[in-house]
Specification:
The chain is an alpha+beta fold. The chain has three helices and six strands; from the N terminus they run E-E-E-E-H-H-E-H-E. The radius of gyration is 20 Å and the shape is elongated. The strands form two sheets. It has a three-stranded antiparallel sheet with strand order 1-2-3, with no helix packed on it. The protein has one domain: Ribosomal Protein L30, Chain: A. Helix 1 packs across helix 2. Helices cover 39% and strands 34% of the residues.
Amino acid sequence: MTTLTLPNEVLVIDRETETVKPQLQKPSLYNVIMVDDDKTSMQFVCDILEGHFNKTSDQAYEHMMDVHLTGGANVGTFTKDVAETKISLIHELANQREFPFQLKLVELI
C-alpha cells in the first residue's frame, strides 16, 4: 500500500487490488477573535455572543468582560466557511447599528 499526498488530498493506493481510494482529511479550524472597542455597546456584544456563538447570558457576560479587560478573546472555533459566514453576518449587524465592532479569523496551527 502506498500513500500519495497531493495539495488538499491524500490518496491511498492498494497495489494488490490496484485501487486508489481518497482519504478524507479533517478541515482546518479557525478561532474567531472578538476585538474590544470603545463604541460598541456591551448589550450588543452579549446579544452577539448569545445569538451567534450559543453562549448563555452568564457566559456571554463573562466573555464580554474578558474582551473588554484584555482587548480581545477567542469566542469560538470553527471551520473556515462557518467562521467567515459568522463574521460576515455579525459585521453586517454591527454596521447597521453603526458600531465599529470587529471579529478576526485566526487559523489554528
